[in-house]
Amino acid sequence: MRFAEDIIIRPFITEKSNDDLAEGKYTFIVEYGATKTAIKNAVEKLFNVKVLNVNTINYEGKEKRMGVHLGKTAKWKKAIVKIDTDPQPVSYLDKNGKLVTTSKKYKTEIQEFGGMQ
Fold first, then answer.
1. In contact, 25 and 45? CB cutoff 8 Å
2. Which whole-number Å values give the CA distances from 16 to 12, 81, 88, 102, in the listed order?
3. For the segment 36-78, what is each residue's pLDDT rounded down to a tens digit?
4. Kindly report the CA angle at 86 between 42 and 30, in degrees rounded to 5?
C-alpha cells in the first residue's frame, strides 16, 4: 500500500499551469506507476479538496550525451488535477423519507501549491 505522500512528488509550476489555476486545475509530478484513482485519493487526502477529474501524461526519458558518454534521463509522470471550486451541499432522503442536507467541508483551492517542495 502506497501513502499519499509517496504518490505526489512535487508541484509542476510553469506559465501554463499558473494560468490553469483560475480554472481550478493543478499540475503535479507524481510517481510513475500511480493510477488516476490513486492520484485522486492522494490529492483529496493531502489537500482536503474535492477532485473532479485527473488527466495524466507519461514522459519517457531522453537520450543525453556529454562528450563520448551516452546516458538517459529518468522517465516521469505529470498529473493535471481539476478540483471543485464551488462545492454544493448534498441532499438525500433518509430511511424515514425525510430530506437531509449536508454541506461538505472542502477547500476551494490549494494554498500550499507554490510552496510545496
1. no
2. 10, 14, 28, 36
3. 999 999 999 999 889 999 999 999 999 999 999 999 999 999 9
4. 20
Identify which of 106, 104, 110 has the alpha carbon closest to the alpha carbon of residue 25: 110
Contacts of 30 (CB under 8 A, 6+ apart): 7, 8, 9, 39, 42, 56, 77, 78, 79
Q: What residue segments make up the domains of the chain, in order of their start? A: 4-108
Which residue shows C-alpha cell 492522494?
Answer: 42
Q: For residue 79, give Cα distances in angstroms to 22, 42, 46, 93.
A: 17, 12, 15, 36
Q: Tell whether domain 4-108 is in CATH 3.30.70.330.
A: yes
